[in-house]
Amino acid sequence: MTYIRPSFRHPGLPKNDIGFTRADYEGAISTLCAGCGHDSISGAIVQACYEMSLEPHRLAKLSGIGCSSKTPTYFLSHSHGFNSVHGRMPSIATGAYMANRDLVYLGVSGDGDTASIGMGQFVHAIRRNLNMVYIVMNNGCYGLTKGQHSATADAGSKSKDGAINPFQSIDLVGMALELGATFVGRSFSGDKTQLVPLIQAAMSHPGFAFLDVLSPCVTFNNKPESTKSYDYVRAHLEATATIDFVPEKKEITVDYAEGSSKNVKLHDGSRIQLHKLAPNWDPTDRGSAVNRLYEAKSKGEILTGLLYIDQESRDLHELENTVHRPLNSLQETDLNPGAAALENINESFR
Amino acid sequence: MKPTNIQDPEYFHKVVDCQYACPAHTPVPEYIRLIAAERYTAAYMVNWESNVFPGILGRTCDRPCEPACRRGRLEDEEEPVAICRLKRVAADHKGEVKHLMPQGPFASNGKKIALIGGGPASLTVARDLAPLGYEIHLYDEWNKGGGMMRTQIPAFRLPETVLDEEVNYILDMGVHTHFNHYVSSMRDMLDKDYDAIFVGTGAPKGRDLNLPGREEADANIHIGIEWLAGVAFEHIKSVGKKVIVLGGGNTAMDCCRTSRRLGGEAVKVVVRSPFKDMKASPWEIDDAQHEDIPIMNNMPPKEFVVENGKLKGVIFGNVRAEYDENGRRKLIPTGEPDVFIEADDVIIAIGQDNAFPWIERDLGLELGKWDLPVVNKVTFQSTLPHVFFGGDAAFGPENVITAVAHGHQAAISIDLFCQGDDVLTDRPGPTTNLISQKMGIHEWIYDSGVTNDDRYAVPHEDKRKTLANRKVEVELGFDERLGFKEAQRCLNCDVQTVFNTSRCIECDACVDICPTSCITFTKNGEEEELRERLNAPAQNTDQELYVSETLPTLRVMIKDEDVCLHCGLCAERCPTSAWDMQKYLYQVTKAGQTCSNLVE
């Protein structure tokens, strides 16, 4: 019996711009169930960070409680991490981000951690436009407690024990759009060609980037009658567009016919290329995204891809006009401007 | 690409690199696992079935398996598993094995076979045919069997006791031996009414070097393989203090090391080609150098210097090697002055040739290029239908394990021929077996963990002892502890990753977990283009791509077999058992063998 990942890697693994291979972005071996969608999302995160040539120490992984929230152990071993209390990851993220805006913040949560216990935290993180990526690994059930329906389970969906969910589901994507999130996307753990560029775009977005990733629970919620099973999701997928992420330095090589594609320029100079656009949809128009989402839902489709992006996004630090340097680098001279400055302030009130 | 046909017995066979590279296709991982389980007797028998001489080969094999070992491809510094020396572990630590071998007397089938030459090829034919009831007559010019294994491999590499033991297992099967009997006429043999004759006479003629002074100094100039035979049979007991060995092959290494044990103090090996082109196995060169024998390269001999009728030394030129675009080598004189090296004795070990002076040319037995017999490469049949060749006698000098492989195939042909079957079309295919190794969650029948240990070195006997007595074996072999550790380095490449397309739900778990990025799910394409766009580029075209049938998302699973660790993680992470680890046992069918009497 063994469950140890060998340390040998493919000798011909390519290296990224900063000399790292994909293996440098790996984490510990996963203890989730075999075939868990969450592991694929972890794989996509590893791939996205590798392709973006992100130095692992520049990223902080944050999570709450649940199967999803265990995953930060399984990717990016050399990054910072904080595993917080159930549903309280946004608070930790807010604190960390206020203290140091130089890191890339990657929050990982689940449908329970976000749509139930952490709902209050989630909505305020959106409202404040924290500069972070917030991934919900959404499997519609509570995997750690034997698969009860979660708040994102669709009405009528059947779980492994045969129980049919009587309640309406919370659509996190629709809610994020409604609350004014500046980047909203949805994807599927089994579709890395879409998920990887979406994560890259989300990491490049200056503001709260929300990704709802459907991630089948193979153990408790993968029956054919479940709306979050591999088969059901694959059969009902509908993409807004195909998506490519083009980092700042790379040139655009593929040309598509006018009208069928769109280029979205991001704040840091990188671009999102969208092709085969859905009709009546403009990724920069929140209204069209809401409409498109509603249309898809009424047809029983699961709309994936980039749904909405606000290119004018202003994040929390910008809104608050806070100091640019991390707090830990501020010296006494920065923090204590001296008696003369105090005198000036006092004078202004006289 | 088309879906891979895993029903083809050669597909998974090729994945077991060591077994595939072995001329006799010994199931290497199978016996290595048995060694790790301390089942030495069983490990020995797996070997004995395939290669007949585990104790001998465990010391002397050319080991084509080791350069093929997957482990050697994992990292630049990583070395292959010490497959050859593990074989010796099985031989050293085994229990009683004779009762596991076919027990005579065997019921006669009325057929008589003559084997000319008592080396590994002939002995293998005897081993395979005697239990089937053939009356075997073995002819050899020496007083014991073993052929070149006895005459050319020095005792410090292969103790006589080991050789005798394994030769006798075969002779004791009721083989009629005609020792001290040099066959000088094929016509006489043909007249003796054997149902078939097998020729396994090796490549008995050592090449000579016709340079000035050769004849005058004849008393102190020796032909390598003849000299080694003289030492083996104790006709030669000493050599001068200063010895030059000419040649860069394994025979040269045996000659120089033997010289060190017969009184040679300043022994030098002089080779006309560069060091990297030497034919000797690297480990044999290491052993020679360890015994204080300098190897001098790029020096072709020009003249034997003789004074007063006695050899004084050899004059050498200086050359450098140049290679043309086809890789063909030319040795160009550098113009530096010639070098004179003193010598009391010179041993010429520059190659050996086949020689059939005893085969009359009017028998209908055709000899072709380089006086080699015309022999079918599959059946080993000559142009006289009841005469078969094998070992070095068939296609020129090779090695013991190749001779064994020839012997097995020739035995099949002889059996088919004597039973009136077609030697080509009635040949049996290999027997194969594919068995799941799954026992439970994270539990496999095989030890799937991959150790990071570096290759273990075989301990050597103290040099003062070994140089003082030519019969003291240099290598001590692995003890049980080291043998276990080295056995653990084996990746179990015979435990195959078997993919079932209809079970796959395309969850990507295998792709994410695979340590060496072997697995990719992608759109199908042409092989050349596919190899470029896999998760890790598949640049070793000697290794196959395993392609599934088309999946529901219209993609295919492609696995590059090249650096798969056979760790089983793909199967452990697969929620639907679309991946399974299955042990593939490939065995070359032997003469008269049926499925029911195969060794497990």
TrEMBL record, chain A:
Entry coiled-coil feature ranges: none
Example of a GO biological process term: cellular respiration
A GO molecular function held by the record: thiamine pyrophosphate binding
Pfam families in the record: TPP_enzyme_C
Thiamine pyrophosphate enzyme TPP-binding domain location: 65-213
The entry's keywords: Oxidoreductase
Signal peptide range: none
InterPro entries named in the record: 2-oxoacid:Fd_oxidoreductase (IPR051457), THDP-binding (IPR029061), TPP_enzyme_TPP-bd (IPR011766)
Protein name: 2-oxoglutarate ferredoxin oxidoreductase subunit beta
Automatic annotation (TrEMBL), chain B:
InterPro entries: 4Fe4S_Fe-S-bd, 4Fe4S_Fe_S_CS, DPD_II, FAD/NAD-bd_sf, FAD/NAD-binding_dom, Helical_ferredxn
The keyword Metal-binding is assigned to this record: yes
Keywords annotated in UniProt: Iron, Iron-sulfur, Metal-binding
Domain 4Fe-4S ferredoxin-type: 495-524, 554-584
Listed GO MF terms: iron-sulfur cluster binding; metal ion binding; oxidoreductase activity
Record bears the keyword Metal-binding: yes
Record-linked PANTHER family: GLUTAMATE SYNTHASE [NADPH] SMALL CHAIN, GLUTAMATE SYNTHASE [NADPH] SMALL CHAIN-RELATED
UniProt protein name: Glutamate synthase
Protein source organism: Flavilitoribacter nigricans (strain ATCC 23147 / DSM 23189 / NBRC 102662 / NCIMB 1420 / SS-2) (Lewinella nigricans)
Lineage of origin: Bacteria, Pseudomonadati, Bacteroidota, Saprospiria, Saprospirales
